[in-house]
Write a structure and sequence with these properties.
The protein is 27% helix and 27% strand. It has 10 helices and 17 strands. The strands form 4 sheets. Strands 3, 4, 5, 8, 9, 16 and 17 form a 7-stranded mixed β-sheet that branches. Strands 12-11-10-13-14-15 form a 6-stranded parallel β-sheet, with helices on both faces. Helix 5 links the parallel strand 11 and strand 12. The radius of gyration is 20 Å and the shape is globular.
Length: 325
């Protein structure tokens, strides 16, 4: 098969498009012929290298996978060759695309237990925008954040995959959503997608803007997976007893903070890691039934993975970047 292979950790120049041995299914696995694979910041981290997290090289990343079953392991039941599927990339043996060989290739081996049926009317490129982004947002907002109708939620980085999923989930359950992004164009798109208020954080202090939009009472829920310089201002935007949610730190994991806001306002700071099979399956069902609409920003053929990753690094996208083998 052909694959986009990370030959060594470092720059984009270390990605090559070349032949790779076809995977064979274990007894409880299937091999999926990839129809589309979504790109995530995780793919950037795997290629660059993460301190304390060695990845054996060469390696194939990519966890947001949609396609059709190409072959079945001897013990697999309930699935057939040709079935349309997406999947939960978090397996019992590690994360597909991070610890296990991923889907930025023509074929990928996955445990049958991690498959999710993909209805015929959901395109592969749409499905490739669901598992990691919507699964992550679903767990963070509901299992951890307890978001409810009528609450006000501020979403930072709202134009990316998890951010858009958070905005859409918020509107789906009846929350008031303040979406913060880094350009007027992105803010306009977020307003079109249903955000009640938008804030261009390049032009104004998002924390002050959210404070004023809530009548100086603060937000019930803050979604911050950027970290860095945005962390302390996020605390200032929360109401007394509010919840500050984080599932990552794309702008820095060791931010300056301000403990006074945490104790004076009795804030809950809640971490959320990964997602469950149910988080992914529920998200796919919501998309299939029209309650959510993933946004695909750009599509690339697999041999142009380096160009796609550069676009992600430069934040020149709105929604999901998807690769086609």
């Amino acid at each position: 098969m052909k694959a986009a292979v990370i030959e060594a950790q470092g720059g984009i120049e270390n990605i090559t498009y070349r032949d790779w041995d076809d995977p064979a299914p274990g007894p409880d696995d299937v091999v999926v012929r990839v129809g589309a694979c979504g790109l995530n910041h995780l793919d950037i981290f795997v290629r660059r290298g993460m301190p304390g997290f060695p990845v054996p090289m060469p390696f194939i990343s990519g966890g947001d996978i949609a396609g059709t079953i190409d072959s079945l392991g001897a013990d697999v039941q309930g699935w057939n060759v040709g079935d349309r599927v997406t999947l939960n990339p978090q397996t019992d043996h590690g994360m597909i695309g991070e610890e296990l060989i991923g889907g930025l290739a023509e074929l990928v081996r996955v445990p049958a237990a991690n498959l999710v049926t993909l209805p015929d009317h959901v395109p592969f490129e749409t499905a490739a925008a669901i598992p990691i982004n919507y699964g992550t947002a679903h767990r963070m907002l509901f299992a951890r954040g307890r978001l409810e109708a009528g609450e006000t939620m501020l979403v930072l980085g709202a134009s990316g995959g998890v951010g858009l999923a958070s905005v859409q989930f918020g509107k789906m359950v009846g929350a008031r959503v303040i979406a913060a992004a880094g350009s007027d164009e992105k803010c306009a798109r977020l307003a079109e997608l249903g955000a009640d208020h938008v804030v261009n954080y390049q032009d104004e202090d998002f924390s002050r803007a959210a404070w004023l939009l809530t009548g100086k009472t603060g937000c019930d829920v803050i979604v911050n997976f950027t970290g860095g310089e945005t962390w302390a201002p996020s605390l200032r935007a929360a109401r007394r007893g509010g919840r500050v949610l984080t599932c990552g730190a794309t702008a820095g994991h060791d931010p300056q903070t301000d403990l006074r806001f945490i104790w004076v306002r009795e804030l809950d700071v809640l971490g959320s890691n990964s997602y469950s099979q149910e988080d992914v399956a529920s998200s796919v069902a919501h998309v299939a039934e029209g309650r959510l609409a993933p946004v695909v920003s750009h599509t690339f053929p697999l041999e142009r993975l380096g160009e796609a990753e550069r676009l992600m690094e430069e934040r020149g996208f709105f929604g999901k970047i998807v690769l086609f083998p």
